[in-house]
Each structure stands twice: as C-alpha cells, then as structure tokens.
From TrEMBL:
PROSITE patterns: ACT, PDH_ADH. Belongs to the prephenate/arogenate dehydrogenase family. InterPro entries: 6-PGluconate_DH-like_C_sf, ACT-like_dom_sf, ACT_dom, NAD(P)-bd_dom_sf, PDH_C, PDH_N, Preph/Arog_dehydrog, Prephen_DH. Residues 8-285 form the Prephenate/arogenate dehydrogenase domain. It is an enzyme of class 1 (oxidoreductase). This is Prephenate dehydrogenase. Residues 293-360 form the ACT domain.
Amino acid sequence: MVESRLVGPVRIVGVGLLGTSVGLGLRNRGIETILADASPTNLSIAIDYGAGRAARDGDQPQLIVVCVPPDVTAEIVARELDAYPNAIVTDVASVKLAPLAELRERGADVSRYIGSHPMAGRERGGPLSGRADLFIGRPWVVAAHGGISYQQANAIDDLILDLGAVLIEMSPEDHDRGVALVSHVPQVISTILGRQLANASNSALNLAGQGVRDMTRLAASDADLWVQILGANAEPVRDILIAYRDDLDRFIDALADPTAPGARRKVAEEMIGGNAGVARLPGKHGQDRQFSSMIVMIDDTPGQLARLLHEIGEIGVNLEDLRLEHSPGAEIGLVEISVLPEVVARLTDELAARGWRIAG
Ligand SMILES: NC(=O)C1=CN([C@@H]2O[C@H](COP(=O)(O)OP(=O)(O)OC[C@H]3O[C@@H](n4cnc5c(N)ncnc54)[C@H](O)[C@@H]3O)[C@@H](O)[C@H]2O)C=CC1
Ligand SMILES: O=C(O)C(=O)Cc1ccc(O)cc1
C-alpha cells in the first residue's frame, strides 16, 4: 500500500460519483473513510463497493468532504461545521462563489472551510460510476478565502495530493470565470448540438463518426446537476455565450454568399482563430493532439523514471513525448507519456501487469 499524507478518518457526505471516487481513492491509500448520504441505497452501494464504512456515534473526522449537488452544498457544509467542531470541511461543487456567499449569510464558521473543485468527472453520476483513479493527474482547485489561514487548510492539500491530483490555488471569482469558459460553456454548446440530432433522420445519424461523438459526449450529462451548476454561474456563462452568439453571426454572414468577395477569407479566419485557441490547451487535447497520452504515477525515488522508460522500450512501444510533473510536496511524480493511439491499450495493460499505476 502507498503511504498517505492524510491521517484520517475522512468523512464523505454524498456518495455519488464524486464521493464514492474520493472514498475509493483514499481507501486505496489505507485511509479510514466514513460515508453518509441522504439516499440509503447510494450509501449501501458505496459501502459495498469498498469506499468506506457507515457513520458511528463518536466519530472524530479530521477532514470532511461534502460531495452533494450544488444547491444543497452550503446547507450541508454548515451542518457539518456545526456537528464536527474540530474538523476542517471542504466541498467539491462545480461552482465556488455561491456556496461561500451562502455560508457567510448563514453565519457558518468559515474559518474551518475552504471550497475546492476537482476538474474530473463523468457524464453519469451515482456511486456505480465511482472510480479510485478519477482524480489522478487532474487539476483540483482550492478556492481560498480570507477567513481561513493557510496552515489550517493543510488537510485539504493532503487530500488532493493523496488522490494524485494537481493542486491549483485560485480565488472563487477566478475559478467561476475559468470554469465558465472551459467547462460550463462547452456543456451548453454540446447540449445545443445534441438537440440538433434529436429530430435528425436515421440515414443522417448512420453517418456519424468520431467528430460528432467527441462534440456531443457532454450532451449526455445529468440535467438535474447542470440546471444547478448553470444557475449558480449564470453571469459568466451568459457573457461567454453572448460573445459566442457574435461568433456564430459572423459565420452565418460569411456563409450567406460563400462566393462573394472576401467570404472565403472570413471563413478561413474563423478556422485559423479556432486552431490558435485549441493549440493553447495544455495536454492531450492540445499540443499533443496527434498522439494519445496517458499518465503513470511513479515514486519520487532515484531510478524510477529510468526503469519506466526501460520497460516501455522492452514492451516495444515508441515514446513520442514525455512530461514529468511533481505534485508539490507529495512524494510522487506524474509522468505524462504520449504514444500513437493504436498502442495505448496494449501499453496500458502491459504496464499495469508490471505493477505501474496508470491514470487515464
Ligand atoms: N459529475 C461531475 O462530473 C462532477 C461533479 N462535481 C460536483 O460534485 C458534486 C456531486 O456531484 P456527483 O457526484 O456527480 O453527483 P451524484 O448525483 O452522483 O451524487 C450526489 C450524491 O449526493 C447525495 N445527496 C443529495 N442531497 C443530499 C443531502 N441533502 N444530504 C446528503 N446527501 C445528499 C445523493 O443521494 C447522491 O448520492 C456536485 O456539487 C457537482 O457539482 C465536481 C466535479 C465533477
Ligand atoms: O467530462 C468532462 O470532460 C468534464 O468536464 C466533467 C466535469 C463536469 C463537471 C465539473 O465540475 C468538472 C468536470
């Protein structure tokens, strides 16, 4: 078992996709986890899956992670702060300003609370979708505020590093504007595109290739959750959608008469603008687009990276690119390797069989 930074126990409230994944990841590191959920069914599934045990009288959690829908996040965080006066509390809701504002309105003791947000998830919620490796190599924002000192937030940093994620500090305002651009607006646009398919003919749908599937993956997301996320971050999302409407209008105008002087240039300029934007995305959807990437966790000890590279050579796979990230303070390294898409499955299986920990 890998050594952990957290001491525990960690109490997890809400054991759907996020809560079960946190529980499974911490249990893999030997950390005691206590689970709670308003749904008895979800609670027993998460326990059966090995994400932790049920709560008992006298539990003294070091840290509480609230993983409930955004609308009820502040209410549950406030309740947990009251019930466990020695614990630090965080939440994982996809928006950060609204829960903090509501906690302040409720007069909660925010000196023991910092909101956070892992940029990792799936379209399907519920405990059955939980995965121990969901957060490995993913950004996890800590949205600090003036009411808590850095030292008190140590347990939240340890949680993030123990789960193999990459800690990023941001203000709640910057966070909400950032996720509006990279998560919430892409969700809306994917949904709109998905709706266009609802009444399409079967003969058109039968032609669907990978492009439309990539673009509409998010359209399968849970409506209940997204009504809450978009409602809680409406202003930044709206601002970007208004700019997007202008972009759409330019495209529509350019296509009104594609043979008119300058029309082709206008379309080309839009395409080149898109190329430039997507090239700025870090990681596998950006610079390394023509290759597939995977992340291998290595212990931060001498010889580990060399052994990994040697074994990839033994497996007979050519490495196209490599990036090494140290999780600040954690004794692990995250090696992002890029290879040809057709060898990913074999390389993943063979490295896993040799005992390497792989994440996505
Ligand atoms: N789904 C995703 O991809 C991501 C979601 N998030 C955030 O994580 C949080 C949880 O999302 P998911 O795990 O996807 O949802 P989910 O629907 O899979 O799980 C939510 C769980 O909370 C429980 N719950 C609801 N109200 C409760 C209450 N009052 N008290 C106790 N338990 C309650 C539900 O029974 C359910 O088990 C949300 O705030 C969401 O914004 C963050 C990153 C990614
Ligand atoms: O599936 C994806 O690519 C996502 O972006 C999932 C996701 C959904 C909600 C979040 O708050 C964070 C991540």
